[in-house]
Amino acid sequence: MLFQQKKALVLSDFDGTISRVDVGDGVLSRFASESREAIDSAYIRGGMGSREAYGKIAPLVRVDAGRLRAYVLKCSAIDPYFSRFYRLAAKKGVDVKIVSDGLDFYIRAILDKHRLGEIEFYSNTVAFGGEDTLTFDFPQANALCGRCGTCKSKILHDHRLMYEKIIYVGDGHSDICPSQYADLIFAKGELLKKCRRESAVPYRAFHDFREVSEYLKKNV
Asked: Considering the entire predicted model, what is its pTM?
């Protein structure tokens, strides 16, 4: 029996893409005991990867699960068109998965809040310890590179043979590498700037998931 590829897969970033705000950045800013400006600057310049940055930030964060959940649910706001897009994708037979260099705790809480808990997502994980401490783990890291906590490129490659087309949706630094292995990119923010400078992959600027929905209606 021949292997039958599925139609299409949409891989989407979470913070700044599905979530209108960068929840991870907000969490680390709110609950870090010291400024992480130097760490952030090194990450943005490319001097360190996100995995190393998380390792340096973890000792600075003090919060328990209850306070973190309350904060996340209070500040979260997802793209107003995302739920509609997700339902359309299901109707079209298009799979949707989330790839994030953020943390599983807040992604799960926000998806559950919006009754989207069935969406599969890949991310870093957080564990709560004594005295309000946190530890981070990186189940989706790439041992051959190790820069990112979650290697979105590896996840894309793992799904490549299963789909006729992979569409990538993102906005930030961690989306630049994986998007270049997709068949089409929906980009905003830093990712859009990079695509405009140089991209071997067709891309479209977007503001919200209404535009991604319109593409699915006409092309899938």
From this structure: 0.93
